[in-house]
Protein 1
Amino acid sequence: MRKKRRRRSPSPGRLIPLLPSMLTTVGLALGLASIATSISIHADYASGVVSEQWLFNRFWWAAAFIGMAVLVDMLDGRIARALNSESRFGASYDSLCDLVSFGVAPAVLLYVWGLSEYGNPGLMAMLFYVVCTALRLARFNVQFATKEKRMFTGLPSPMAAGLILSPILLLSEFQIIATPLMKSFCLFFVPFVALVMVSEVPYRKFPRIARFGPFSTLVAGSIIITALITNPGVVAVAITYCYFILDLGRCAWKLAAKTTSRDKESEALAGDES
């Protein structure tokens, strides 16, 4: 009689390279949780039996789920590089999950939060943001090993999602009711963020641990984590908007300097010819 072969259980060492993809799946689940929370807000608010406290709480969680997905997205790429387990499959899977977590989830959240009040223009702003997120991720997949190895071309989609979620997180944290001016501002700000995503504006990547050393990184990380736990809305707004404005302002400054020098050269040439 033939002896039945026992199936060998996979060793823990073989499962380690799957850790980045497992973290990517966690990020996808967090994005889906945000979408489900936003849909439940819309459904329950339509019934008219919810309190302001309940709305603040649900909006906070819908935004917080996306914020958690941003943190997970920052980890999975670094772990993949540390384990030397980067692959085309992992990059494609990561981009597909990012489209849900940083494209669809923030758009649905913002639409339920305020854009739905503007009818078709609000819907157009939401759809435009999602389309630009898909284009941004597709371009990153093509050139992540060449042009975007050191610098991002255009605003990264996680930070774009952070620009959307952080004000909602802040307002919900301090239970501040959004004014019509705030919501109308988002109607124009969201398409602008989407355009910056697909633009050629260079954005710096976050520095690696080796640049500052493990101990300095541990101290800085402890400060950021402590601030996020105590005041998540304030820290999220500060980090995302500083990152957005600094590199955008740097690019505008360089462009203005090039234009000025070009005008001076043309004026000098015109003076020589005369």
Protein 2
Amino acid sequence: MYIHQQNIHTLHEIKLLLMIINKLIYSCMQIIKANKMEPKYTIEPNEPAEPGNNSKIVLEDPKEAMKMINLETVRNLEKNALEATITLLCHRAQSLKNDSVKLSKSQETLPQAIQTLQIDNDAKQKVEAVLSNVIEEQQKTMEAKVAPVKQKKSGLMELQKTSKKQKSLNFGVVGFGQAGGRLADTFFNLGYSAISITSIDELELHQEHATQLVSEKLSASQANIICLSLGGISNARGAEILVNILSDFKKPVVVLGILPFDGASVFIKQNVLRTLSVLNKYVASKKISNLMIVDNAKLNFILKGGTNELEFYNLANKMVVDVIDSFNTLTSEKSSIESMDVSDWAKIITNGNGITVYGKLTLDNFEEETSVAEGIIENLYNNLFIREFDIRNAKRIGVVFAANKDVWEKMPKTAIEYAMHVINDPPSDDKIVSRGLYVVDDPEPVVKVYSIFSGLTFPTIRIDKIKKEIEEIKK
């Protein structure tokens, strides 16, 4: 569902205006408090209610707003200036709430509207000064609180950057469709540059704009990750377009594809086969440097299925992105024990030469020599984010062990060696294994094991199973 751009602006302006009113009154209260004066009424700064719900929006009536302030006790703000400001803002907010009133019928800006007020010039200047300062402050507040998405052309969206920790590699992220968009949003919350494309129609209609958006917003990236569901109706076509757009920038293209739940319809499973067929073609031609696959059914198993749908997707998205970000963040640091070489991490993630799978394991038994190894034997496969992959055939393996200082002091030195022996089984001259041991600021007395296996062959077992399921349902 799309919301018209004009309506978005209208809703945002309502919120902004009401926040300004609350800010003005709260500022007055602060002055009262500073002068140790008692106001007529006690009021607290409020967030305005969301337009469209049943909650009452505060301070709609200018007279009621004025009653909340004992203006005689307010210093440095003249009554007529403040009254004019609140009256103007309340009137403006009230008119904007009316669905029949369009912005096109009221093009005046607040500063222009001020000039029409029947107050003297000195008062107008005070109003303008108050508005200028408060609006600037509230716009910054809104930018931080409103979903950090800037509408571009019809569904092409740029996710605004946030402050970020140091990373080994600067990934750019492109989310396609609903599932891909959620993953892109999770990446950007961790400091990565990201854009989101909502549908195939928008992508096909605005390929040039999508290319421009990638060029402008992901220009600093060293590699780009496409996030998408493998079962989406148009994701095979979307993947094809995006891979071709991103490969033209001569940077590694990584695809993060999500398999659907077991109970998915025949239609969705057929889409999975089509999308995997397209991606396999690009892996073979090297247009895709690495294809990472995650299974929603496996994530549901790891989360024990004890969540509602909204909670599941929030937790699952964080799990999927957390492993990649943990590798990318920890490998940028110099470990006091043993660091993983950044170039090894870069080769694993951007030069997988096939399929890549990964996962995270948390162990609370680590004080015996074989404890960590035994935990890996029992739980490694169960905690990978995919099923039916033989990781013994991986060409590159990366493993990071992270624990706090107390845990490392209690863990026998040989524990990691035994653990690595298990992970590297069977050993091979063609297999490259990289590891890192990091002391982290974690209050839990646990060892977190992040593992990634690349260079795997296509999941023929899983594909054959999907084909069989389709045939059985058709019967």
Protein 3
Amino acid sequence: MLGGSYKWVLGSACTIAFTDLWWYYSRMHELRAHIVIDSEIRFGKPCIKGTRITVGDILQWLAAGMSEQEILEDYPELQKNHIKAALAFAAERDAMTKVIVHETVA
């Protein structure tokens, strides 16, 4: 759950909703601390700190229908925060992805 929420009204037609970004970024930073990228582990793929389990592994398990509880039972070295960290990392990486469209003119 997010912290406080604020609204500013600019003129008569423009409303900007501002949600407590400090809480969001501090939480993302806390989760990001669980992810490491080391060229010596799993070819440099982002992994859960102290394991060889990649962010991609966790995403694939979730996509295949495994519940958080099933993952935690199958991989006791993982904690709930690790799964949240993998999701946050993937969301952050997706947000940074840019699509470049190249049109050719005949």
